[in-house]
Amino acid sequence: MKKIDLELKLRSFRDNEKNSDLLLQVEKILNDDENSRTEISNKLSTKNPSKAENALVFDLLKTENIYHLSHIEKICVDYRLRFLDSNLFKNTIPEEAISKIKNLEKEHQTNLSGFKIVAPSKAFHLVNYDDPLLFVPIGNNYYYLIHKWGDEMNSFRKLMVLPLKSLRNFTIFTVILSVLVTLVIPQSNLSKSVPLAPVIIFLFTFKSIFAILGYFFFMVGKNFNTEIWQRKYYNN
User: Fold this and answer.
1) Which runs of consecutive H residues, i.e. helices, occur in 3-155?
2) What's the gap between Cα 218 and its chain centre?
3) If we measure between CA atoms, which residue out of 117, 109, 112 comes closest to residue 101?
4) Crossing angle for the helix pair 6-16 and 69-79, nearest 10 degrees?
5) Which parts of the chain span the membrane according to its record (predicted)?
6) What is the pLDDT of residues 202-211, one digit of tens each?
């Protein structure tokens, strides 16, 4: 099975937008005077106190490592990943990542804070993990990728979690499953005595499958990808 490099996939999401203003926007943020930076920081802290802003020198940044929150959200939703504070990450962060943080702080003459990690939900609760990405915020919902480690993501994962991406995807999946179940149910004799028997069977099958899968899904504390990608709770 082909492996997926999350960093390359994230980069493709950003590059496909062909947003020529991205670098100009980031440069403006990083070159704002201290009062403007304080104002932006206050706005961010009011909306989400866990977010921070780091004063990095624009000319020293690698532009290919700059991502907007919308790019991160897309990859999290597509692959059922979470984007959470690094203190919630239960596994050991490699020494190489620590070294990169130290070098970045020395190069930019600052102390970094507000670290975030993109990883599967289990990486924040269990020992096993796959392809985490370590970010640091640089203001206005832009994040700088510091380090990627671990194994590459299995390409089959996106297909596996597709029904859980959103309520719309879940409904489409149950409709397709219901159609398949309806097709394998013998209907020849029933169709002669009951008008629209296939439609009735489909509706009954759809209602049953949707109810059973939905009940089991929410009973075990799960939710859709679009809802959990920034949630720090295991069962909410």
Assistant:
1) 6-16, 22-31, 34-47, 69-79, 95-108
2) 20
3) 112
4) 130
5) 167-185, 197-218
6) 888 888 888 8
With 0-12 / 13-18 / 19 or more C-beta atoms within 10 angstroms meaning exposed / middle / buried, residue 150 is middle
Residue that is written with structure tokens 């802003």 in the block? 53
Among the listed residues 58, 183, 52, the one whose alpha carbon sits nearest the alpha carbon of residue 111:
52
Between 55 and 28, residue with greater pLDDT: 55
Question: With 60 as the cut, is the pLDDT of residue 32 above it?
Answer: no
Instruction: Enter the pTM of the model.
Output: 0.58
Eight-state DSSP code of residue 102: H
Q: Per DSSP, what are the bridge partners of residue 233?
A: none
Q: Which two tokens stand for residue 22?
A: 């991205």
- Residue 29: the pLDDT is 66
Question: What Rg do the C-alpha atoms of the chain give, in angstroms?
Answer: 23
- In angstroms, the CA 80 to CA 158 distance is 8
